[in-house]
Amino acid sequence: MTTPYVIAPPPQPAVPVRGGGLFPVHRIYCVARNYAAHAREMGGDPSREAPFFFTKAADCVLPVADGECGRFPYPLASNDVHHELELVVALGSGGENLSVEQAAACIWGYAVGLDMTRRDLQGEAKAKGRPWDIGKIFEASAPLSAIVPAGGAVPHAGAITLKVNGEVRQHGDLADMIWSVAEVVAYFSRYYRLCAGDLIFTGTPEGVGPVRPGDRLEGQIEGIGSLSVAVV
């Protein structure tokens, strides 16, 4: 069979769906400082001014099926890698300039995710006034649990907790978000044409901190599910 590609195309990034099937990943958007306490611990001023955001490459996803423990390889060129536990929204449809109601209707499901961050490289880039993609975009930097179909529900509350080696590091509630789930989706649609397959990381509560090889991370979001990852 002939093919127009001059090299073999890369595999389609995908995440398992609870109950069976795979969710193909198109793009990954991430909201920064969407919990007031985390904004303060990062030196920010929490308010309802326009949120800011960054992106990750689709192949940053590290899919972890229910009941499994993912293996997060400690990345190159960093000595200070941090965990950030987040509710992740998976879109089944999209559009531009969506209202909050339209944005909610685009949501296909939810997952528990980790935004792993090379904090030292991020901090160096910030200090020099450079983009800090290098701190956020690297292999396996987006561990993700199986996606749970939304069934029309939009969570407004629920405990979000991360333990490292059995000790609670991060704890908050989805109700603590500055911008709600649907508001976040609507906001992104002002700048991008959102598409089916897009993932949106909705921010992390306070307590972010470093991990080391040998650590075991266990994240849980009430009503959504759990995520287990070993740092290797």
TrEMBL record:
GO-annotated molecular function: acetylpyruvate hydrolase activity; metal ion binding
All residue ranges annotated as the Fumarylacetoacetase-like C-terminal domain in the record: 28-231
InterPro entries: Fumarylacetoacetase-like_C, Fumarylacetoacetase_C_sf
Pfam family, one: FAA_hydrolase
Record keywords: Hydrolase, Metal-binding
Top-level taxonomic group: Bacteria
The protein's name in its UniProt record: Fumarylacetoacetate hydrolase
Organism listed in the record: Pseudothauera lacus
